Amino acid sequence: MKLTNQYVAPTTTNVKHLTSTFENGSTIQFSTGNIRPEDLAATDVSVYVEALTEVLDEFLNSDEWREAAMEATPCEFRPAGSEASGQQIITMADRTVTFDPRKNWDNETISKGPVLAGSVIFTEPTSEALLISKRFTILDHTLMAGFTEQSMSQTAEKLLRDIEYEAAGSVAKILSTGPSTESFSVAKPTGKPVEIAEDLIDILTMNINQTVGSSLGDFVVLLPVSLLAVLERAAQRAGVEDIESLIGASVQPYAGTDYGLFLLPKLFTSLSYREGRNGDIWKIQATRNGAHQCWDVEIMTTVDIVANGKVRVKLTADGLQTEAVAFPMITNIKLT
After folding, report:
1. 148: containing domain
2. 95: helix, coil or strand?
3. pTM of the predicted model over 0.85
């Protein structure tokens, strides 16, 4: 009679030793049957973690990702230890701006002044930088039943989408209280997707800041992910390829709290990603958590948001006294 729980001493035929590529050492797997690497490749958690982190690192630190990032929003990739690059761009139209009351030499209090076409706008990073960090845990027992190449690919795609949308949500949070952001409230469109999309396009068009852009194509539209399905359906009904073709502008969805829609001028705003000392933008780190029999994986990077605009306004008629004040560049439309 064969005992199902009979002890089998470890031998070279039933013990497989895996040297891990991670710094925390190696793992030992035990089986009562002969082991072949091809049999365990689809149930070995360390193999899964290693393959997943390698493909994420390869993509996020590739030229392909940088090109995609620059297509989505204006951005730069700066060497380690350097500062974000400010911009100096000339305005295209006259505009009067309001600001905190300032006193001139005649002891007059000035709270608004004209910014003439041809004036130079200086942009600088916001007071808050953004640390993008996505952390998740892979428990050993969840993968013991096995995994496939397709399931790993789906996991990687979902992670990248979550990082993109959540990071955009953090950007929206910072911009919502920025000194260069103008906020407007409008009635939330209702009806069928096509009707909502048409109303949204009209709202965006009517709120273009003409001093930093003349058409929707000059802006990136940051919008809640809840509007994504509506606009995609409207694009399908209109017979166009995607949302960008429907609206006529770049679109970046964001997840989390709804801060409304943002119009970010492409020529006046940018994201500044910090490179590490090895030249990589993203850091992917996997740590073995022995206490919980799992792997902890973290994906992170740091980015500055160059979106605070300043311009010099005359406080005296002769122009001898000027003051640098915040210049409204970003339009925030809240749907109420």
Report:
1. 55-335
2. strand
3. no
- Total count of domains within the chain: 2
Are residues 104 and 209 both part of a single domain?
yes
Residues 6 or more apart whose CB falls under 8 angstroms from that of 163 comprise 132, 134, 299
Residue 237 within any structural domain of the chain = yes
**3-class secondary-structure state, position 306:** strand
Q: From first to last of its 336 residues, what are the pLDDT tens digits of the chain?
A: 444 455 555 555 554 444 444 444 444 444 444 444 455 446 678 888 888 898 899 999 999 999 988 888 888 999 988 888 887 878 778 888 877 788 777 777 877 888 877 888 888 888 888 999 999 999 988 887 777 778 888 888 999 999 999 999 999 999 999 889 999 999 999 998 889 999 999 999 999 988 888 889 999 999 999 999 999 999 998 888 889 889 888 899 999 999 999 999 988 888 999 999 999 999 999 999 888 889 999 999 999 999 888 888 888 777 777 888 888 889 999 998
Return d(Cα 141, Cα 42) in angstroms, integer.
13
Specify whether 19 is located in the same domain as 157.
no
Please state, in angstroms and rounded to a whole number, the distance separating the CA atoms of residues 47 and 45.
5
